[in-house]
Amino acid sequence: MFYLADHEGRGIGLFAKTFAYLLQEVGYDTVEANHLLGFEDDERSYDEAIRVLRSLRSKPVTLITNNPKKLQSLQQRGIVDR
User: Fold this and answer.
1) What does the alpha-carbon distance between residue 24 and residue 65 come to, in Å, rounded to a whole number?
2) With contact defined as beta carbons under 8 Å apart, do 50 and 74 qualify?
3) pLDDT tens digits, residue range 5-35?
4) Separation of alpha carbons 50 and 34, rounded Å
5) Annotation marks residue 77 as catalytic
6) 3-state secondary structure of 46
7) I want to staple 20 with a disulfide (CB 3.0 to 4.6 A). Which of 5, 33, 39, 49 is the partner?
8) Alpha-carbon distance 16 to 74, whole Å?
9) Active-site annotation holds for 6
10) Angle of helix 68-76 relative to helix 47-56, nearest 10 degrees?
11) With contact defined as beta carbons under 8 Å apart, do 30 and 20 qualify?
12) Which of 41, 44, 57, 82 is catalytic?
């Protein structure tokens, strides 16, 4: 396991994520809240994670996520075998 900076709140940062939480408390889901704040569904790039995984592993990894962008990004680069 490793930590990637700038991935908090789907890449919108901790400050903006606090506003997204307020919107979620009144019924919006994560994606809707991000859109209302002027952000995309997911602002993150997975290029850095892919570079780290490629340097540390020769075999595909098992990814535990419900984020389709994350899964697609890693599958396209052969990092995930799922």
Assistant:
1) 20
2) yes
3) 777 778 888 899 999 999 999 999 999 999 9
4) 25
5) no
6) coil
7) 33
8) 26
9) no
10) 50
11) yes
12) 44
